[in-house]
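Narrative of accomplishments. A recurring question from our advisory board has been how the design workflow behaves on a single, concrete structure rather than in aggregate. To address it, we present the structure tokens for one chain from the evaluation set, followed by the sequence designed for it. No filtering or post-editing was applied between the two.
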């Protein structure tokens, strides 16, 4: 499983419409066969920043995502709305992982 986290600094004039502009692209990624999750969040401390967390079954699914016909057009749709180059973290968690683990430090129930 691979996990990717990206921080997107959005121009203030797009901060409230950024996710709406990307809704179709987001739905397309979520429909990809190897996509485990594709989750957007708005930074509570900086309303002009969005954080995307992506999970893919394996490196092949990640490569298929980058090769998907909606990938490059989605990036170009973002470009005029961004204030700076996004920052990314890529992690390959290895085979056998398929999703989220319970948090050991905070167990409920």
């Amino acid at each position: 499983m691979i996990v990717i986290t990206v921080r997107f600094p959005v121009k203030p004039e797009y901060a409230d419409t950024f996710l709406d502009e990307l809704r179709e692209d987001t739905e397309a990624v979520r429909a990809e066969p190897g996509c485990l999750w594709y989750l957007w969040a708005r930074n509570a401390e900086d309303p002009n920043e969005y954080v995307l967390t992506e999970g893919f079954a394996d490196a092949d699914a990640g490569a298929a995502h980058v090769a998907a016909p909606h990938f490059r057009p989605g990036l170009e749709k973002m470009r005029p709305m961004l204030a700076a180059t996004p920052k990314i973290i890529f992690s390959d968690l290895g085979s056998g992982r398929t999703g989220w683990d319970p948090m050991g430090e905070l167990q409920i129930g």
